[in-house]
Amino acid sequence: MEEKRWISRVAYRKHCSLSVAGQAHPCIIHNISLTGLLVEVSECLDLVEGTRVSLLMEQFCPECILSEIECHIVRRSGCLLGLQVSAIDYDTFEKIRDILVALIPEKGVLDQEIINLLECKKEKNPDVQ
C-alpha cells in the first residue's frame, strides 16, 4: 500500500473526548500530526467517513481551558478513527507544533511541512493572501 501522507505523524497519547452531534464520548489520541489525528473511542460508534466531529481536550495548552479541534472522519476501523483537521485555534495549533518539534528528530522538517501546507492551501484558494 502506497503511503499518501506528506506530513510527519508521531505517537502521542492523551485522553480526551470526541463530540458527535453535541454528545461527548471518551477517547484516546494515539498519534498526531499538523493535519490529523488517530483516536480510539472507548465505545465503537456507528460513524461513517465524512462525519463532522470535534475533539475536546481539557488543559491541553496553558492558554486554553478547553481546546477544540473541528475534524471530519477520513478512516474508520472498529473503534479507531482517522480524523482530518478542519479547523483549529492558534494556541492549540502551536501546542501541537511544539509536541511535533520535540518528537521529530530531523530538524527543519516541520517548518518545511508548514510551508508546504500553506502553499497547498493557497493553491486551492488563490484569493487567500
Descriptive tags:
129 residues; alpha+beta; 47% strand; globular
Structure, explained:
23% of the residues lie in helices and 47% in strands. It has a six-stranded antiparallel β-barrel with strand order 1-2-3-6-5-4. The chain contains two helices and six strands, in the order ββββββαα. It is of the alpha+beta class. A hairpin with a 2-residue loop joins strand 1 and strand 2.
Summarize this, please?
The protein has helices at 90-103, 109-124; strands at residues 10-20, 23-32, 36-41, 52-61, 64-77, 80-88.
Radius of gyration: 15 Å
Distance between the termini: 37 Å
* Topology, number of strands: 6
Report the sheet-strand fraction. over 45%
- Helices and strands, in order, run as EEEEEEHH
User: Quick one: overall form?
Assistant: globular
Tell me, rounded to a whole number, the average pLDDT: 85
Low-confidence sequence ranges: none
Q: Please give the order of strands in the largest beta sheet.
A: 1-2-3-6-5-4
Question: Which structural class do you get from the secondary structure elements?
Answer: alpha+beta
Percent range of helical residues = 10-25%
Assembly type of the shown chains? single chain
**Biggest sheet character:** 6 strands, antiparallel, barrel
Structure annotation, total helices: 2
